[in-house]
Write a structure and sequence with these properties.
By secondary structure, the chain is an alpha/beta fold. The chain has one domain: Uracil-DNA Glycosylase, subunit E (3-Layer(aba) Sandwich). Helix content is 43%, strand content 12%. It is built from 9 helices and 6 strands; from the N terminus they run αβαβαααβααβαββα. A 6-stranded mixed beta sheet has the order 1-3-2-4-6-5, sandwiched between helices. A hairpin with an 8-residue loop joins β5 and β6. α1 runs antiparallel to α7, α4 crosses α5 and α4 runs parallel beside α9. The longest helix has 20 residues. It starts with a helix and ends with a helix. The model has no long low-confidence stretch (mean pLDDT 93).
């Protein structure tokens, strides 16, 4: 567990980073702060269970993604976040939720840190070109943000685009992806670029609003294969 002093320092560092980031935005936009959803939960998480969910951008959200998630989202936010809750439950408990009650969804998302590659709000259909351009521009800041949280696991929502941007341009990792094989149908690798003393497991997941049951079950296989279940 983290001490109260550590969590308060983390809170201050994150707030300063978001303020700097927002102030540096050249184009007028709806800047979406993101990061740790619930600091008390984050501080109390057991070892090996600190998870960053890395996504593309928000869909027309005004303001803070953290506030959005910590206050129950919206009437339709389950369309994306139900599957994120399923992923987190799989990491925490090793089980698949067939049905995710609203109360369970609201509770589960409080356990994570969420980062968008593009901090300015987008639309229902993200432009890969625009997301990649924003991530390249902010690559150093994105790396600093990820490293700030020292995650044990990074789940990238939007395989191909998000996972490749993370590996190639943000972390600039040399480690090779473990390709789909007889053990798992998902790509994954362990990064030494996030934490100085421990490796971070990176798993390329589909975008959560398209994620089928089979991919959450594949995540369980990777957790087992890498000794994280």
């Amino acid at each position: 567990m983290m001490t109260s002093e550590q969590i308060q320092q983390l809170r201050r560092d994150e707030a300063a980073m978001m303020a700097e980031w927002s102030a540096s935005s050249v184009q007028p936009c709806r800047f979406n702060t993101d990061g740790i959803v619930d600091y008390e939960r984050w501080a109390a998480l057991p070892g090996g269970k600190h998870i960053v969910v890395l996504l593309k951008e928000t869909n027309a959200l005004s303001g803070s993604l953290v506030d959005f998630l910590s206050h129950g989202g919206s009437k339709t936010y389950y369309r994306t976040w139900n599957n994120v809750a399923r992923w987190i439950n799989m990491v925490f408990n090793g089980t698949y939720w067939e049905f995710v009650p609203k109360s369970a969804l609201d509770d589960m998302v409080r356990n994570i840190a969420v980062i968008n590659l593009k901090k300015c709000s987008g639309s229902a259909h993200a432009s890969a070109k625009v997301v990649r351009q924003a991530a390249r521009q902010d690559a150093d800041r994105l790396k600093r943000q990820i490293q700030l949280y020292e995650p044990d696991i990074i789940l990238t929502g939007g395989w191909g685009l998000v996972s490749n941007i993370l590996h190639d341009e943000i972390l600039a990792d040399d480690a090779e992806w473990v390709k789909p094989n007889g053990q798992t149908a998902l790509w994954y690798y362990t990064s030494c670029s996030v934490r100085s003393e421990k490796e971070t497991l990176v798993v390329s997941m589909p975008h959560p609003n398209r994620a089928a049951k089979c991919w959450t079950l594949e995540l369980e296989k990777i957790l087992r294969e890498t000794g994280r279940s």
